[in-house]
Amino acid sequence: MRFETVLYDVEESICTITLNRPEKLNAWTRQMHLDLKEAMHAAGSDPDVRVIILTGAGRGFCAGADMSGLQAIGAGGSADRSAKAAGDLAGGSTLADFRMNYSYFPAIPKLIIAAINGPAAGLGFVIPLYADMRFAAESAVFTTAFAQRGLIAEHGVSWLLPRLVGLPAALDLLCSARKFRAPEALSLGLVNRVVPDDRLMAETRTYARLIADTVSPRSVGVMKRQLWEAQFQTLAKATVQANHEMELSFQTADFKEGVAHFLEKRAPKFTGT
After folding, report:
1. Which residue, 192, 214, 171, 211, is CA-closest to 50?
2. If you count DSSP H runs as helices and E runs as strands, how many of each does the chain have, helices first?
């Protein structure tokens, strides 16, 4: 599968999607937006894919919106609104909140891990927040950047960032637009792991292999949907949904395999059904 601004590779049930404008630190463009959405939905609907890794080519993850595009808006142009809303994926969340231009990652029924290999600024800061997990290289640098451009908390980050780091830290990061490094991101809870630069992809893939090889892909998809949708639910509603999902899981091949491989003391052979 070929795209203009992203690379798409599937190997041993792991799909790696790479933002691919390394000469521009993978600065975001309309085409990249369209390519990434198509690539994510392709991986989400591929039964051979169990985990998705999102990273950047070269020495950066994403430097934010391409400044030439921002300059055009400032000169009297308008923000692009031509991207089509993506359709529902089987097993993914169908909440309208997860069908927006940049909030669709939670509706992808596969675990998404952002491997942040370098600078992540502005929109390049927001995109990995919608991933399910974030692994960062030691040298990675983060900044919200919006306040330094006369902009605001874009694309739902005002909802998402406080849920990850808390309200005071979110206000700090957004209003100061200061740069901060991976160890601080880890201490804030913004990333799950900080990894030496030369080990980032290897360790990310090792974790992805754990998910791909040892747990039910159906379980992962359902639990991902439960956790994201629970952000809009009461405890009672989340419990009712869990009880329903538990009854459904008892009827699946993966449940039978989960019991069988444990009793037979062998590696699992989950099919996602």
Report:
1. 211
2. 10, 9
Gap between the Cα atoms of 49 and 52, Å rounded: 7
Two structure tokens written together for 178: 């200061």
- pLDDT tens for 199-233 read 999 999 999 999 999 999 999 999 999 999 999 99
Which run of H or of E encompasses 7?
strand 6-11
What is the spatial distance between Cα 255 and Cα 185, in angstroms, rounded to a whole number?
37
CATH number of the domain located at residue range(s) 6-211 in this protein? 3.90.226.10
Between 97-101, 185-189, 250-254, 260-264, the lowest mean confidence (pLDDT) is in 97-101
Q: How far apart are CA 139 and CA 48, in angstroms?
A: 33
Report d(CA 198, CA 109) in Å as an integer: 29
Per domain, the residue ranges of the chain are: 6-211, 233-263
Q: Please state the separation of Cα 241 from the chain's center in Å.
A: 24
pTM: 0.90
**CB contact at 8 A, 158 and 146:** no
